[in-house]
Structures are given as structure tokens and as C-alpha cells.
Amino acid sequence: RARDEGFIAVAHAGEEAPAEYVWEAIKLLKVSRIDHGYHILDDPILTEKVAQEKIPLTTCPLSALKLNHIVPLEKFPVKTMMKLGMIPTINSDDPAYFGGYINENYYETAKALKLSAEDLVILAKHSIMASYISNEKKVDLYNNIDRIYYEIF
Question: Which of 48, 87, 105, 112, CA to CA, is 20 to 30 A from 61?
Fold first, then answer.
């Protein structure tokens, strides 16, 4: 009924709990996005499913580091997720509490993982893809990212 009323299903899954919780979110809740999802990588079949179905993952590097889920930040799986065809995004998570707004999350992750400018463009576009804005607005934002990238590089 919630979907009929226009609500969107998103779940916190695979942050602390095992990959099985992500399976449940996909099968039972029919989620369109997973928050965190780090333990997806523990299950190759789930990893493939999430990649094939292009289910976005809203990763939060600095909160994962602060909560000791992923230490050091050089082990943060966003680059691995990208290589496997997944749709990770970089986000802040309660920034006042965890000490990092979106810019700090991008900066620290880029530094720790040695992300290229192209990697950062892909991650920014993933964030747009994962959002619930109109397709028209998404296209405008994609074009802005491309314009800025080509002006700089």
C-alpha cells in the first residue's frame, strides 16, 4: 500500500549486519536503494544481483571509519564496488556527529583510495542516478558535471 501512496522503499542494510539482510531488503521490501551495503561484497551472488539490477548504494565513508566498520579508510570498498559494476555513491551520515560533510567525505575518500578525477565524476553521477529527482533534472545535473569537468580538464 505504501508504494501505491507514492512512498519509496529504501533500507539501511549490510552496514553492520550480514549480506542476508540485504537479500531480505531486496526480496521482501523490493528496495530501490540500499544505504551502506558494505557486506554485499561478502556474497558474490548478491554482489552480481545488485550490480545487474543497478541498485544504488549510499556509502558513508567517514561514518564507517568513525564507527570502526571499515578501518583504515584505504580499505573502503567504493572503488571495488565500481569495478564490479555496482552503483556506489559517496555521502555524509549525520555530519555534525561523525565529523564530515559531503565535501570532506569526497576529499578523504579520494585521498585514501587515490581516486582519479574520472572516478569522482562517476561517483557524482551515481549520486544523481540514485536520487529521486525527475529525469529532466538528472540530465541537467549530468550536463553540468560534464561541463565543469571539461572546463577544468
Answer: 48
Judge whether 74 counts as a catalytic residue: no
Q: Does 22 map to a domain?
A: no
The model's pLDDT over 82-123, given as tens digits with 9 standing for 90+, comes to 999 999 999 999 998 888 999 999 999 999 999 999 999 999
CA 4 to chain centre: 26
**Distance (Å, whole) CA 32 – CA 87:** 12
Catalytic pick among 5, 15, 74, 118: 15
Q: Give domain status of residue 54, yes or no.
A: yes
* Domain assignment of residue 3, yes or no: no
Question: What residue numbers bound the domain in which 137 lies?
Answer: 46-152
Q: DSSP label at 55? A: -
In a domain, residue 82? The reply is yes
Write down the pTM of the prediction: 0.94
DSSP 104-149: HHHHHHHHHHT--HHHHHHHHHHHHHHS-S-HHHHHHHHHHHHHHH
Closest CA to 39 of 63, 18, 25, 60: 18
